[in-house]
Amino acid sequence: MKRTEIKKLVDAFMDETVKHMLQEQAHEAIDFACSDNPSASIVVLAGPTGVGKSTLLSKFAEEYLRQWSPEMAADTTLRPIVYSIAVASGHRGFDWKRLFKDASANLDDPFAYQRNRRGPRKGEPPRRPTSRLPGESVGAAVMREELEAELRLHESRIWIIDEAQHVIRGGRSGAPGDQLDVLKSLAQTASTKLLLCGTYNLPDYMVGSGQLSRRNSVIRFNRYRWTDPTERRVFANVVNALLKRLPDGTSHPDVKANLQFFYLHTLGCVGILKEWIARAFAKQLSDGDSALTLTHLQLTRLTANQLATINQEVIDGEVRYGEGREEPDDALKRWILRGVAAFKRTPETVITPARVRSGPRQPRRVGERTPGRDPVSR
Length: 378
What we know:
By secondary structure, this protein is an alpha/beta fold. The protein is built from 15 helices and seven strands. The protein has two domains: 37-220, Rossmann fold (3-Layer(aba) Sandwich), CATH 3.40.50; 229-321.
């Protein structure tokens, strides 16, 4: 079979989608947060790599546009939802201008990628923003205000930013809170909800202040757990459904007999599963075989090192962040109910919560003893 024909068949399989329990739960949560939750200005979708977050976002965007199709037919300028990918710039500073240009292009701005390429034309005064956020360049501030105007003009209600961890980690303007200030300001000015999608630790950056914590909604999209019988059964159904999406009724291995094999090499992540089946299907077609076999799957599975790396990230995320619906532990309950009485004072009389601290220890000053030891003699 020619490579062009193989690519066509594999692409057709990758376009197939399968509904499943955890995806539907996350979809319902996004729909509520974006459409019915009046207090959430920033919605965060977090989960491990390969769980299917981008597929979920595409599905949500398609359905949202379908809901607004009558209004869009009546008003051709209406763009209720915008989709962007925060591209990693390859260095420490995140490229805000690239993000703003991509969003403007999604709003059908024909000059999106020509804006701010050079200085003002001859005879034109230089463009100046009406306001600049901390650490923001003049050019980025101008483009931000132009995008805000575009979002208001097209009445865009939701701006999806996929791979949003690149924004938070890579900004030049300082700490993650500074990057969030840019997004928060844009959302407020343009009256647009931001739907940020990223890795497990993305919600960490949303709790830098009480105001931001109150104004955001965090949605966890987890993988299927082998230890949960219900989730294990649903995962088996997803494997079967995807294999049945192969064209021309291609025969495949028995899922029930090989369920542990499928789980071990996908870690319970549907996105990894789908990509793996696509690779195995391409191998089958390339070899000229009529059936998809365990051999095709074994030859195209992720390596042990790849699985170990992904699994470590998944476990770390589940241990540290859980599912986001945990009840407050006893220490937090005491902290909330007892107020100041639940705090301890450090030797510097700085008040800190009487809870288990996380993160690296702060370096001590020269001559400063560890807590519990005698003071330095004078």
